[in-house]
Write a structure and sequence with these properties.
The protein is α+β, with helices and mostly antiparallel strands and 108 residues long. It is built from one helix and eight strands, in the order αββββββββ. Strands 1-4 form a two-stranded antiparallel ribbon. The chain has a two-stranded antiparallel sheet with strand order 2-3. Strands 5-8 form a two-stranded antiparallel ribbon. The two termini are 25 Å apart.
């Protein structure tokens, strides 16, 4: 693969990551109308037990029922994590129009 092709692929990868990262951050903010709870971390156990009280017409009084406890463990989502670093201006000064910037990403 020649240098020009590698450079094109690198630019496409950076543009894809930037657009994906930008839209992932802005779309939920724009679409969200009510606050949501934070995500539950991998390995967290969620426990639930249901209770019920009812009346049976053929048996006077109330009847209580309790289910078995169900425990669910939140699994880790398979995939990649992309972390972007602060862009670096190649000429070492502050960023302005026409500057070439380097964007480093850590992909895990």
């Amino acid at each position: 693969m020649n240098t020009q092709t590698k450079r094109l692929y690198r630019q496409l990868l950076v543009a894809t990551l930037l657009m994906g990262g930008t839209f992932n951050m802005t779309v939920p903010v724009l679409a969200q109308s009510v606050p949501t709870a934070p995500l539950t971390g991998a390995g967290t156990e969620i426990k639930n037990k249901a209770t019920a009280t009812y009346e049976d017409p053929s048996n006077p009084g109330t009847i209580n029922a309790t289910s078995n406890e169900v425990i669910i463990t939140v699994a880790e989502v398979a995939g990649i994590a992309v972390t972007g670093a602060t862009p670096v201006d190649r000429n070492g000064s502050s960023v302005s129009n026409g500057d070439i910037l380097d964007f480093d990403f850590t992909i895990k």
